[in-house]
Amino acid sequence: MRRRLFGSVRARATLGATLVVAVALLAAGASVLLALRSNLTDQASSEAESSARKVAVSIATGTAPAALELPDGDDTPVQVVDGDGRLLAASEDLERISGTGSSAVRPVTPPVDDDDGGDDDGGDDGGSDRHGGKGKGKGKGKGGDDDSYAYGEIADDAEGGKGSATVDGETRDHRFAALEVKNTRQGDLTVYAGASLSAEQSAVGTALTVMLTGFPVLLGVVGAVTWLVTRRALRPVEGIRSEMSAITASQDLARRVPEPATHDEVARLARTTNETLAALETSVERQRRFVADASHELRSPIASLRTQLEVGAAHPELLDVEGAVADTVRLQELAAGLLLLARLDAGERPGEARVDLATLSGEELSQRPAGRVAVRTHLRPVEVAGSRSQLARVVGNLLDNAQRHARSRVDIAVRAEGPWAVVEVGDDGGGVPEAERERIFERFVRLDDARARDDGGAGLGLAIARDVAVRHGGALTVRSSPAGGALFELRLPVAPAA
Question: Do the Cβ atoms of 463 and 453 come closer than 8 Å?
C-alpha cells in the first residue's frame, strides 16, 4: 500500500512541495528568531551602556560613589567597582549578581589618601568627614564642595557581557555594559550597568509559539492545495493512460487519446501520442498490404513453375524449360527484393564505402545486353559514401524501368551539383501522370498492365530505389523529361574529400 501510494506522481509532488515549504519555513523562522534576538539583545546592550554612561558622567563630574543616585536594581542593576575589585556603590535591593567585575552586593567604604600635607589626626578627620557614610557623601557630592574626588576621564567604548541579577527574590537575565572612569581620586573605577533581557526572551518565546502553531497549519494547507492542483493537472494523463490501455486491449490503432484544450506539456504529450498512433497505424497497414501483395506476387510464379514441372513430369516432351527458368528468375528477383525491403525496414545502416557513381552506372549498363532502345550516357566521376550493392540496385532498377517504357531512347547522366551527386535516367516513353508521381514509389503499385506485366515487374523496383536513396541521406523524384517521357533524378550527398 505504501509503495502504491508513493508510486503516484501526485503523492510525490505533494510530498516534495510540502518538504520544500517546510525547509523554507524552518530556515525563515530560524532567521527571524535570530534576527529578533539579535536586535533585542543589541537594544538591551544600548540601554545598559546608556545607564552606565549616565553613572560614569556623575562620577567624572565629582560625585562620590557613595552619593550616586543609582537606578532601581529591578530594571537596571548598577555596580561601581574600583581597581582592586572592591564594590563602592550598588543598586538597592540587589541580592545577587553575576557577569560583572564583582559578585558583592553591599558596598564598602574605601580608604582615601590625604594629600593636604596635614598630620595624621587631621587626615583621619578629613577622611571621616568625606567618607563616613552615605548620607554625608550624598549631601556633598553634587554640590562640588567635597574635593575628595577629582574630575575623571570616561572611556570611549563600553565592554559588553551577559549575566543575571536577583532583586527581591526574582532572578532575571541581563545584558551588562562595563564603562571605565579613569583618574578619579579613588583611582580607576568601573561602572557596571545592566538591562533586563525579559523583553527579548518574551518576544522570542511568543514568536516561537506562533511559529510552532502556525507552521503545521501552513504545511497542511500547502499539502492539500498541492494535492488538489496536481490531481486536476494530471487528470488528462489518466485519460490518456486509460485510452492507451483500451487501444492495447482492442488492438484498434484507429482510436486516439483525448487531447486537452490546454497548451501545456500534457497537451503536447497527447498530440505526440496521437501522432505516434497514426504513424503506427500507417506502418501496420503498410505491413499488412505488403504481406498480402507479397503473398499474391509469390503465388503466381510458384503456381506457374509448379504447373510446368508437373506437366514436364507427366509429359517430358511438353516441358517448357525456358518458361520454367524465367519463372524461377522472376521468383528469385522478387525474393531478393522482399529481403532487401525487410532489411531496410529493420533499419539496416548503409556502409561507408566510397562509390563512384559514373563507374557504377557504366558497370550496370555493361551487364545489360543491347536492347531495342539506344542508351546515351553523360557520365562524370563523382563519389558518394554508402553501400555499393544497394546503390547498384537503385541504378539498375532505374535503367530497367526506363528501358521497359522507352520508345527509342534512354538517357543517363551523372554529375555533381554543389554538395550533391546527381544521377538522371530519362526515357521518351509515355511518362508518368503528375497525379501519380508519388504513388509509383509505393510498394506493389502498378499504374497499368502495360507498365508492369510485360517484363515481369512486381512493382517493387521504384519503392526499393527510393528507400535506398532515403537511407543514404538523399532523395529520388520523377518529372517529365525533355524527350517527353519520365525523368528520374537521384540525389545523394557527395562523399567528403579523402
Answer: no
Q: Residue 354's Cα: distance from chain center in Å?
A: 43
Domain range list for the chain = 55-198, 261-348, 351-493
Q: Each residue of 172-215: pLDDT tens digit?
A: 888 888 988 887 777 888 899 888 888 888 888 888 888 888 89
Q: Which helix (H) or strand (E) holds 146?
A: none
Can you tell me which residue has the cell 505491413? 287
Distance (Å, whole) CA 296 – CA 294:
5
* Class for the domain spanning 351-493: alpha beta
Q: Which of 126, 162, 122 is nearest to 146 (CA)?
A: 126
In sequence order, the 6+-apart residues with CB closer than 8 A to the CB of 111 are: 127
Per-residue model confidence as pLDDT tens digits over 213-243: 889 999 999 989 988 888 888 888 888 888 8
CB 425 within 8 A of CB 402: yes
Q: With contact defined as beta carbons under 8 Å apart, do 172 and 196 qualify?
A: yes
CATH number for 261-348: choose from 1.10.3720.10, 3.90.640.10, 3.40.140.10, 1.10.287.130.
Answer: 1.10.287.130
The bridge status of strand 170-184 relative to strand 187-196 is antiparallel
Residue 357's pLDDT is 94
φ and ψ of 262, to 5 deg: -80, 175
Count of beta carbons in the 10 Å neighbourhood of residue 170: 9
**b/e map of 344-354 (b: 16 or more CB within 10 Å)?**
beeeeebeeee
How far separated are the first and last CA of the chain, in Å rounded? 64
Label residues 401-419 b or e (16+ Cβ within 10 Å = b). Answer: bbbbbbeebbbbbbbeeee
